[in-house]
Amino acid sequence: MSTFSELGLASKLVERLDQQGYETPTAVQEKAIPAFKKNNGDMIVQAQTGTGKTAAFGLPILEQGVSPNGSVRALILTPTRELALQVAKELGRLNIDPSLSIVSIVGGMDIGKQIQGLKRNATIVVGTPGRLIDHVKRKTLKLGDIQTLVLDEADEMLQQGFVEEIEDLLSHCPEKTRLLFFSATMPREVKRLAETYMDEPENIQIERTQGPMIDQIYFEVKARDKEEALCRLIDQADEMYAIIFCRTKLMVDELTERLRQRRYGVEALHGDLSQSQRNKVLNQFRQQRCKLLVATDVAARGIDVSQLTHVINFSFPQDDESYVHRIGRTGRAGKTGIAITLITPNEHYKWQRLQKTLKVTVKKHAIPSIDAVVKAKEQQAKAKIEAIIANEVEPEYQEMADTLMTEHDPKVVIAAMVKQLCRNAFDRKAYQKMADLFQQQSRGSREPSRRKPGFRGKRSGGYKGKFKPARKDRY
Length: 475
Known about the structure:
The relative contact order is 0.11. This protein has a 7-stranded parallel beta sheet, sandwiched between helices. A 7-stranded parallel beta sheet has the order 10-11-9-12-13-8-14, with helices on both faces. It contains 20 helices and 14 strands. Helix 15 (320-327) links the parallel strand 12 (310-313) and strand 13 (337-343). It is globular and about 85 Å long. The protein is of the alpha/beta class.
């Protein structure tokens, strides 16, 4: 393992990295930084989300300093507003030159302030394709002196349909502009763009590390039972902190409302929220004031949370790349994460094909029974009480305990306190019967049906109504 100084970075930049808590380079930083500094050629870097790609391309760009004529030297494109703001913030933390200006250009923000930022000799511009094109057309962003153009999350950007905007931006850059593509996967669209615009690029591929870091499991349930299955999994887990992925904005809103009705602390995140609403939701989630976030794939891009315990695919991922991006949100910062996928019987073939394509074998588990969930919650409550006891209970509480013990049966007093602490957590009526497909396939058993005798209506298929594809966020 190298050190940052061994990668050839300036001593002041190494000092800043140390101040910011960077200890040793990640695998992508160890390979990409020397390659960037060695020559001026194009590069394609394939590495998972959350492996330190921002510093991998950001540090060498920062080290180049301010352009002599004060023009924009580097342009970094991201697929979402959140990711653009995150990248700009990270580069700002690492920057050691007060004269070097980093400006974020995204939709949903005050364009007047962005214009002012560009006028103040911006050196690095980070933004989303749509708003960047807007500034180019306004002639408030000039790309004639661009030396480096980075596509961050290139696969996600092309999947969202930004190819025209990217090609438009490339047409305004000098022919000698250095192109860097950073991507978690390498789908056909990224390869085509690279073949068209890159000149013999150097390829750097970082081996996936999702072995012990991400424990992938799946559950097969009927569509109508997905919500019940999700609630059981949430309740059985101890302190779940998770992103729950849905395919459309409508599904996000409906699932969020149903979870709230069942008294879960949950927030929704999708493209129809205003920027202020999105910021509010993300702040609540990052600060763990809400521990469950229901989101679409697009909206979840750029969320930098290293402590996620779970990622849950409530809706089947749109494609292999979506699955990789989703589960890459957990298992970070040296911690093991859990990626759960809920599939219906008619999705079984697609699920097998996805595993074959990604060369992974995902374990199948049974949805926990009601008794198993309640038992898990009882154990969690017991552990919390024992933790309080271990930390010594304050005298005023002990005095109240003495009074209650003399007036009532001690066993009844403890039971009453547990009831107060846990509310209705052990109520089995809070859960519904559901078909256990795992048990059916292994032993042919079945939980009792929820249908009433003589029922002749249409079988429920989970969420009612047809869902239209989510509108792609252009900015």
